[in-house]
Amino acid sequence: MSQPSNTALLGLRERKKAKTRAAIQDHALRLFQARGYDATTVEQICEAAEVSESTFYRYFPSKPDVVLGDEFDPLIVAAFEAQPAELTPLQALRAAFRTVFAQLSPEQRDEQRQRTSLALAVPELRGGMLDQFMEAVQLLADAVAARTGQPADSLAIRTLAGAVVGAVMLTLNDDPDADMATLLDQAIAHLETGLAH
């Protein structure tokens, strides 16, 4: 009987990690809704998810990271880099967001809405969310700079990245229960047309 390859083992290990991470996040969100964010402890989350505290902290450096932590930014950058060269940077970013959101399951979209609502409602999380947005501006600026050959610290590149991240922020604040993918697509369309319609 043949042994599984290193690639297969790595794939299995990564899937197991993703499953554990998702389970911790799911149990945490459920507890936050039932008891409130401040009243829920890491210990309670670990007990509900049936993991040790060391396992929890391996996946999430702190309690706020359970709400704020996601893997969207690298997915968006990868989707942006895969867009056809003839698209403008803004068109490519719009297509990248559409691509990533189209791949989300209804459960993932629902979880995103829950995490967004919670982050907007809890002051400690709102501050962390703002930090993440600033990191996202830099990440998008780097990606757009690589695509255009311009320096990432140029005003034009930072303005474009900031405008797109600003659109994300506004759509999150607009209505956390609305379909964010549709709102964000509309917001970036307004940037493309310069409010012409």
Q: What is the terminal-to-terminal distance?
A: 65 Å
CATH superfamily of the largest domain: Tetracycline Repressor, domain 2
- DSSP summary, beta strand count: 0
Number of helices: 10
Class per helix and strand makeup: mainly alpha
**CATH architecture label of the largest domain:** Orthogonal Bundle
- Rough outline: globular
Share of β-strand residues:
under 5%
Largest sheet: none
Question: What is the CATH domain class of the largest domain?
Answer: Mainly Alpha
Q: What is the succession of H and E elements? A: HHHHHHHHHH
Total of domains = 2
- List unreliable stretches of 5+ residues: none
Give the proportion of residues in helices. over 70%
What is the averaged pLDDT score?
A: 87
